[in-house]
Design goal:
This protein has 213 residues and is an alpha+beta fold. The chain has 6 helices and 8 strands; from the N terminus they run ααβααβββαββββα. Strands 1, 2, 3, 4, 5, 6, 7 and 8 form an 8-stranded mixed β-sheet that branches. Strand 6 and strand 7 form a beta hairpin.
Length: 213
C-alpha cells in the first residue's frame, strides 16, 4: 500500500499544497485521484473569427515592454487578468476573483479566477513562476470544485499561468483522473492558442469532454 503524505489531522489550504515537498501523484493519491501526463493537444478550441484578438495581442506586448513583471501581483494584473477579462467581456461570462471555496479540511481556500460555465473553468497564477508546483495546486482546486458542484458534467478544466506562460489541465470526474497537458504556451507568441482554447472550454457542448504563481 502506498504511504500517505497528507496528515489526517492537518488542515490544508489550496496555497499550502504549493509548498508541500511531495510528488504530485502522491498528493493526488491521498485525495483519491490519479495523475496522467500527456503531450497531446486535444483541448476544446474555438475556430470562429475573433476580430478583437489583434488588439489584445498589441496591448499585451505594450505591457511586457512597460511593466516590471517581477512580482506576482504585476504579472497577474498586467498579463493574466487582461486576457480573462477580455474573454468574459466579449462573451458575457461572470468572473469571480479570489473565490472562496470550503469543502473539507483538506480542500479549502481561494480560487484566483473562477468562471462559471458548463465546465467551470479555474485559472490560477503560479506563485514564484513555478508551473510544476502551480499545477499541483490547480489539480487540488479542481478536485475541490468537483466535490462542491452538484451538476453532472463529466469533465472540469483549469489553467495555470505565470503571465508569460500558460499550461492546461483537465479532471475526469468519474475516473477521478487529473490530466496534465505538458505543452507550454508562451504569451504573446501563442496568445491566439491560449485565447481560443479558453473560449473553447467555456463554450464546449455539454456532451463533449473538455492559478498565477
Amino acid at each position: 500500500m502506498q504511504p500517505r503524505v497528507l496528515d489526517p489531522k492537518e488542515s490544508y489550504t489550496f496555497s499550502k499544497y504549493f509548498d508541500l515537498p511531495y510528488a504530485p501523484q502522491d498528493i493526488l493519491a491521498d485525495l483519491g485521484c490519479t495523475l496522467e501526463r500527456t503531450d497531446s493537444d486535444d483541448l476544446p478550441y474555438l475556430e470562429a473569427p475573433l476580430e478583437w484578438l489583434p488588439a489584445l495581442s498589441e496591448s499585451l506586448k505594450r505591457r511586457l515592454k512597460r511593466v516590471n513583471t517581477t512580482t506576482e501581483q504585476a504579472r497577474r494584473e498586467a498579463l493574466i487578468f487582461p486576457v480573462i477579462d477580455q474573454i468574459c467581456d466579449q462573451f458575457n461570462y461572470p468572473l469571480n476573483i479570489e473565490y472562496t471555496l470550503s469543502v473539507s479540511n483538506w480542500l479549502k481556500g481561494s480560487l484566483d479566477y473562477y468562471i462559471p460555465s458548463p465546465h467551470n473553468l479555474v485559472i490560477i497564477e503560479a506563485k514564484q513562476s513555478d508551473l510544476t508546483k502551480g499545477f499541483t495546486q490547480l489539480a487540488v482546486e479542481l478536485i475541490a470544485l468537483d466535490e462542491w458542484l452538484h451538476h453532472t458534467m463529466p469533465v472540469l478544466y483549469g489553467a495555470v499561468s505565470t503571465g508569460e506562460i500558460w499550461k492546461f489541465g483537465r479532471f475526469h470526474r468519474d475516473a477521478r483522473q487529473i490530466t496534465e497537458y505538458l505543452l507550454l504556451h508562451p504569451i504573446p507568441q501563442e496568445l491566439e492558442f491560449v485565447t481560443r482554447t479558453l473560449i473553447g472550454i467555456l463554450q464546449a457542448e455539454p456532451t463533449r469532454v473538455l492559478v498565477e504563481h
